[in-house]
Structure formats: structure tokens, C-alpha cells
Amino acid sequence: MALRYNPAIEKLEMPSKITRLPVDRRGYPVPRFVTYINGQPDFRVVNSKWVAICRGDGRCWICGEHTGVYLAFVIGPMCSINRISSEPPSHLECAQFACKACPFMLNPQRGRNEENLPEGGDMAGLAILRNPGVSLIWVTRKYSVMRDGGGLLFKLGEPTALEWWTRGRKATHDEIMASIESGLPILREAAEKQGPAAVLALEQQVKLGLSLVPA
């Protein structure tokens, strides 16, 4: 039986790598990082084993096929400040499709659904439990890996390209800045708990991060 995609995405240009993914009952492709619960994919729960596989075998976080020279990380604006991602990289075309198709990314007012959320799938790092409204595709040729408790964090290399997205389209300067300004208090609060040196280091990171925002 032919796959039927959700009306919200069926008219989008879909990369061939995405078309090879299974489709859930709603008509959405199921990324490889998703955990299956009782035989059904739960998009809220990350398969922690897939993180290690992506890192060790050079696999795309989303489609599962091998990545190339250029690596695309889909991150929130706050991660553009500290240059750290809790998720491995993807193909650029897979990252772009995610920004155009993911319901959470398409609707800045949409919160995280934690109803009956099963245990597991925790990611490393500081969890910022909000919808930032804007996503950044950070393209780079390299990254390094850091341990954080039992998980992995990915330190992003210098970007070769940056794409800011919101509501399935490229984000404007004002939209980007609004998202950054609303999230900075969270980072500053965390830095203050660590002491003056952490606060100073954060402000230097903020200055560098703001230089990446398009005019």
C-alpha cells in the first residue's frame, strides 16, 4: 500500500532520504532517533543508543544514512550562544525538511507534550524546556564530543553556513532577536549559580553569538 503523508506536509519537497523512512499513523516520517513504545513511535522520546551510533558510524541523526563532509546541526538560539548541541548532526536537506515539517518548529506557541511521557530518552546538558520559536541550522565540517554525566554533548566547529528558521520559513532578524532575548535569562541564571567567572564567560559567548545574527 502506498504511503500517505499528512496533508500538512504532503506538498513539501521531500528529500529521497526522508521518503525511505517509515510513516506513522498521522502521516509523518519517523526519524531514526525516535523510540518505539509498544510498537508505536513516540517522537518525544529519543533513542539514546542512536546517539552513539551516529557518532561512531557517521550516520545522519534524522534519516540514518551516512553523512558527508558538511554536517548540519539543528539547534535552538541558546545553543548558538554556547555552541553545544545535545543531538548529532544531519544532512543539510534532512535538517531543512525538519524545519519545514516538524509541528513543534512550525508553531512557536506550541508547548512540549509531556502527558503520559514514558521514562527514558533523556539528553545530556542543560534542558531548556520551552519552545524557542526559532531554530538554527548550523552547518560545519567538524565537531568534538564531550561527556556530560552518562550522555554526550557535541561542541560545534566554526560554521560554514547558518540558516535561521521559524514557521517553516527563513526567520527575520527581529524574530531571531526576540527568541534570543527571551532565552538569555535562563542561561544567565545558570551562569550566576556557577559564579562570576561563568557570568563573564557567558557574556563573551553572547557577544560572539549575536555576531552570527543576520542584519
Keywords:
alpha+beta, three-stranded antiparallel sheet, 7 helices, 215 residues, 9 strands, 21% strand, four-stranded antiparallel sheet, single chain
What are the secondary-structure elements, in order, as H or E? HEEHEHEHHEEEEEHH
- Classify the beta-strand content into a percent band: 15-25%
> What is the average per-residue confidence, as pLDDT, rounded to a whole number?
89
Specify Rg, calculated over alpha carbons: 17 Å
What percent of residues adopt helix (DSSP H or I)? Answer: 25-40%
- Strand order within the widest beta sheet: 3-5-8-9
Query: Cα distance, first to last residue?
Result: 48 Å
The shape, in one word, is globular
- The helix tally amounts to 7
Structural class: alpha+beta
- The total domain count is 1
User: Which stretches of 5+ consecutive residues score pLDDT under 50?
Assistant: none
